[in-house]
Amino acid sequence: MVEECDVGEYHVYMIIRTKKDGKCWMVINVYGPVQYERKEDFLRELHLRVISSNVPVMVGGDFTMVRFEWEKDGGIFH
């Protein structure tokens, strides 16, 4: 059951309550910006959402980011 939901600039989240045991958890779906200069805002928004939660959090989606240069296929690595 969905207890709560909201939309940010880079994410959508829901607080879900399971029917079986009544426990709550947060699901966050992200879509990261392509523009390098917006990455910090994206990460700040995600960070604030995660630390504001008092239930377990699961994050997924398209981060549009690479951690290491070898993960990128062509283009400029930022």
What does this structure look like?
Strand 1 (2-7) and strand 2 (11-17) form a beta hairpin. The protein is elongated and about 45 Å long. It has 1 helix and 4 strands; from the N terminus they run E-E-E-H-E. It has one helix at residues 39-51, and strands spanning 2-7, 11-17, 24-31, 57-62. It has 78 residues and is α+β, with helices and mostly antiparallel strands. The chain has a 4-stranded mixed sheet with strand order 1-2-3-4, covered by helices on one side.
Q: Biggest β-sheet: count, sense, barrel?
A: 4 strands, mixed
Uncertain spans = none
Percentage of β-strand residues? 25-35%
Instruction: Provide the gyration radius in Å.
Output: 15 Å
Anisotropy-based shape: elongated
H/E series? EEEHE
From the helix content, strand content and strand pairing, which structural class follows? alpha+beta
Strand order of the largest sheet: 1-2-3-4
Count of extended strands: 4
What is the average per-residue confidence, as pLDDT, rounded to a whole number? Answer: 91
Distance between the termini: 40 Å
Report the total helices: 1
Q: Helical content, roughly?
A: 10-25%
Write the layout of secondary structure elements.
Blueprint: E1 2-7, E2 11-17, E3 24-31, H1 39-51, E4 57-62
Parallel strand pairs: 3-4
Antiparallel strand pairs: 1-2, 2-3
List keywords for this structure.
elongated; 17% helix; 78 residues; 4 strands; four-stranded mixed β-sheet; alpha+beta
